[in-house]
Q: What sequence folds into this?
């Protein structure tokens, strides 16, 4: 079972995947319109609603900020690589994102939120060496997980090689790269890959990339949080794709 907390995250699950919500736990002494609306939606879908104490909800929420509500959901299962290959066959202009080695579930959730906002077609997530899709990740993603096609990948480098054979250009982020992220011409078929919070991409993954790009740092901070960097590069892809597809 996965616990999803927070008004926005729970609302998104009730909107997009009500069949996965098993029951709601609501803080007994909290009353506001947002919670009342979610209770009504849950009951419309015959989802059990239970009133609990704040202490009980704190325990259920495992330390995340719950805003008076927690949804008990069926465990989130990433899509298989076979399902991804079937999806890929339908994509005329693939826009993909891969996250390698991010250990903090909050960072992972924030990366996924950026990916959902940018409208990527799929997110590749290694099955090993990655933060779990836990309550903290769901909270940081603010409901984005329910709208994303997330693929559990056994070997990221091999999957990148497969994508390159299909004509996808793989662009990695690297603090030491000489090319700025705005100076790269992102093709119509692109995968952006970001690495872990402390060391970035593995050398093996860097070697597989068609290009490496960096975000210039003008101040004294040496680098950005991985979720912020993800959003910046993904939205540069969005900008270039919009210009390329604009009417002449």
A:
């Amino acid at each position: 079972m996965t616990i999803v907390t927070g008004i926005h995250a729970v609302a998104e699950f009730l909107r997009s995947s009500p069949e996965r919500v098993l029951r709601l736990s609501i803080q007994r002494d909290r009353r506001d319109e947002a919670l009342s609306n979610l209770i009504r939606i849950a009951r419309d879908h015959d989802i059990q609603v239970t009133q609990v104490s704040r202490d009980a909800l704190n325990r259920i929420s495992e330390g995340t900020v719950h805003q008076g509500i927690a949804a008990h959901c069926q465990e989130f299962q990433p899509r298989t690589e076979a399902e991804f290959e079937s999806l890929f066959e339908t994509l005329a202009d693939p826009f993909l994102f891969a996250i390698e080695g991010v250990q903090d579930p909050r960072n992972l959730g924030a990366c996924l939120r950026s990916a959902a906002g940018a409208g990527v077609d799929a997110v590749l997530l290694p099955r090993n060496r990655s933060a779990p899709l836990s309550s903290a990740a769901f909270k940081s993603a603010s409901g984005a997980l329910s709208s994303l096609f997330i693929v559990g990948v056994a070997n990221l480098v091999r999957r990148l090689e497969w994508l390159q054979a299909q004509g996808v250009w793989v662009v990695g982020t690297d603090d030491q790269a000489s090319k700025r992220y705005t100076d790269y011409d992102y093709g119509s078929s692109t995968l952006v890959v970001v690495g872990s919070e402390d060391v970035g991409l593995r050398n093996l993954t860097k070697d597989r990339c068609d290009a490496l790009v960096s975000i210039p740092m003008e101040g004294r901070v040496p680098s950005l949080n991985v979720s912020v960097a993800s959003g910046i590069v993904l939205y540069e892809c969005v900008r270039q794709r919009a210009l390329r597809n604009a009417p002449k």
In short: Residues 81 and 151 are 6 Å apart (CA to CA). The beta strands are 2-5, 21-27, 48-52, 69-73, 95-99, 122-126, 150-153, 169-173, 190-194, 211-213. The first helix runs from residue 7 to 16. The two ends are 50 Å apart (CA to CA).
